[in-house]
Amino acid sequence: MRANHLLFLLVFLSTPGMAHSIYMECSETSSNIECQAGFSDGSSAEHLPFEVISYDDEALVDGETNADSRFSFQRPTTDFFILLDAGPGHVVEVDMEEIAAN
Amino acid sequence: MTTITAQESARQSVARKRKRLSKQYIAYLVHSFVGLKLSLLLTVVLFTGTLAVFQQELDWLIYPEMRAEQQGERQDPGVLLDKLQAAYPENGLFFFRSSELYPHMNAYARFLDENGGYRHAWIDPYTAEVKDDTVLLSIGQFIGFMHATLFLPAIGNSLVNALGLMVLLSLITGLLAVPKFWRYFLQRPRTGNTRVFLADLHRLVGLWSLWIVLVIGVTGSWWFYEDPFVKFAGAPEIVEPYPRKPLLSYEDINKVAALGVPDMLSAAEITAQVRKTFPDMQINIINPPEHNSDPYEVVGSEQEWLIPEWRGTRVMVHPFTGEIIETFPATELTPMQRTDLAMTPIHYGTWAAGSNGPDLIVKTFYFIGGLAMTFLSVSGLLISYKRANRASRKLVGLSVTMKRLKRGWLVIRPWGGPMGVFKYLNILLLAGICVGITIALTLSSQGTKGSGFLYQQQALGPWNISMNAVAGLLEKDLPPIRPGAKTNLNVEIDTLALKEIKFLYVKVGKPRTKRAPGTLIHGPVGAKHVHLQLPKKIRDNSELWVTAVTWNGDYHQARWSLMPNGKETIDAR
Q: Sign of the C-alpha dihedral, residues B495, B500, B502, B506?
């Protein structure tokens, strides 16, 4: 009773093909910044490198997403943005101003 | 030793009988409930599913573009894709299907026409003669979509899957409700009373179609767990995630860039590389790259059973060197993944496809089984209405008009008729299907180009670029730029520019760093697009920036006002 999902998506969405984009959404808890990464096709983004960089281009924190495509870090005292790198053409940036408060 | 008296034995026998009857009655009630409450919807799904067994054959009869005359050797799928692409220079082809499992069918690839509508371009696999193109939503495909989704976005698939569980429950309770059911396989239905005849026929057809009911019930229930429970409700995954399509590495890209502006290999060169490693693989699908770090994906089979043709062994090929960068062999799929993939051919009866397979015979069995299931749904409803009618005969002493009104009321009242209050839900869903069909028919021939917000043409280095933003195919009239929402950007850029540009990005606001200029614009030639996540805060003076990074390392940028300003950004809704 299920058909090819791709065919259905082709009709109801504008995405014509199979490629996917990386995305990252971050929110702030009382002490930490928590980020969730993923690909637009719903696939997970585990073990991808991330960096937290100050507005002065100073590296503050780095690491990898975990098996659930998440990572967290303590909020830096300086202004910052976050980069997540899924490969060539697939680097996503989230500025501190775009981080939602929880 | 305990002695049981004749009286006691008889009492126990009656008690056992009562208990058995009670169990049967409960089974009957459950059978009636699951079979009747959504019976209109179930009938639609079962009937369209029956027709969908032959959806490809139906299209084959209707559209001459699909028909191939089997002659000599088949051409290589890569060669076919190249020839097809050459015939459509302005439209990048994607999802090429070799149709090798179906010797009398042409190969095809998908493309978007100048309006953004989806079409299939056909090519003869023996002579490599390019045929015409057809709409994506052909009559057969329409029936298939209808069966799978009811054209109800978001909930359609889940709803259809839920009916799978209902079918399985109907099967179990139906058998429980008929004691020693095997005695009725050869019993002719009693004639003389329509209701009794229908009930006997319902039981007989149900028994002979147990196999198809089991197939549909099990596969549908499997998908019901996946969608909606795993997909939307966070239920535990029982199938391990399938491997994600990889990207080229930075090292790969840098090596290519060091040699200047590269040429992407043709599909024929790619398949030749694949055949070196997998000489016996039957190539079923080719997905060309949608951007420069996207590998060619070649999907094929090596005689594995019960795997859909668009799955199987996946080979990822470097589009500039032909090196195989990763392979996901079908033999390495886990048992749960194999089970999951097997559901599609088992459900649709496509598991016997192949040049020597008894495909049509198997499909004929499925078709007859589908008709039988449709009959079960309809006859179950009719039997219940007959019972309700019998009860309404008690309306004595009323005028004809009053009797009609009373009978009408007995059916339409919330608790009346076999479907009870669910009849309104059935009608509502059927109305939703009608609306969905209208939308799908319109949208399958229309795209989103030229709708929403227009970002007027301007220079991007030596080239020209323009874009339009739409909230979605179904939301063309909604404002496409809303804080925190996702928007679809269609990008028009000179075809020649795409050869020079390594990556093309879009971002709200000026990129802070060259490392992350935004979200990658991708897609086939003529259908470049991006699904862009918008920031949660959008200022009045926010700008939309496009950055092109060329193979030579040059950066070119263009920017527009994000919101319409009557100048470079226009609201075309």
A: negative
The chain A residue lying nearest B141, using CA atoms, is: A7
Instruction: Write the pLDDT tens digit of every residue in A44-98.
Output: 889 999 999 998 889 999 999 998 899 999 999 999 999 999 999 999 999 888 8
Taking one residue from A and the other from B, the number of pairs with CB-CB distance under 8 angstroms is 162
Say if the Cβ atoms of A10 and B116 lie within 8 Å.
no
Inter-chain contact B144–A90, Cβ cutoff 8 Å? no
Question: Which chain A residues in 17-56 lie under 8 Å from chain B, judged by CB atoms?
Answer: 17-21, 23, 25, 39-40, 43-44, 53
Q: Which residues contact B321 (CB under 8 A, 6 or more apart)?
A: B252, B256, B265
Q: Tokens in use for B1? A: 């030793």
Query: Beta A100-101 vs A22-28: how paired, if at all?
Result: parallel
Residue A16 to chain B, least CA–CA distance (Å): 7
* Residue B357 token pair: 């397979």
The ranges assigned to domains in chain A are 19-101
Per DSSP, what are the bridge partners of residue B557? B547
Instruction: Using an 8 Å CB-CB cutoff, list chain B residues near A6.
Output: 95, 310
Separation in Å, CA of B290 to nearest CA in chain A: 6
C-beta atoms surrounding B194 within 10 Å: 11
In sequence order, what are the residues at sequence separation of 6 or more whose Cβ sits closer than 8 angstroms to the Cβ of residue B175? B181, B210
- Domain A19-101 classified CATH 2.60.40.1510? no
ipTM of model: 0.81
- Six-digit token pair at A86? 């899924």
In sequence order, what DSSP letters do the residues of B27-52 get, joined into one string?
HHHHHHHHHHTTHHHHHHHHHHHHHH
Q: C-alpha distances in angstroms, B259 versus A39, B254, B323?
A: 31, 9, 17
Q: In angstroms, rounded to a whole number, what is the distance separating the alpha carbons of residues A8 and B146? A: 10
Q: How far is CA B206 from CA B215, B363, B366, in A?
A: 13, 19, 14
Using one digit for the tens of pLDDT, what is the confidence trace for A9-51? 444 433 444 567 788 989 998 889 999 998 877 778 899 999 9
CB contact under 8 A, A100 and B515: no
Q: What are phi and psi of B545, to 5 degrees?
A: -110, 135
Q: Report DSSP state, residue B229.
A: I
Stated pTM of the model: 0.85
Locate the chain A residue with the closest alpha carbon to B535: A98
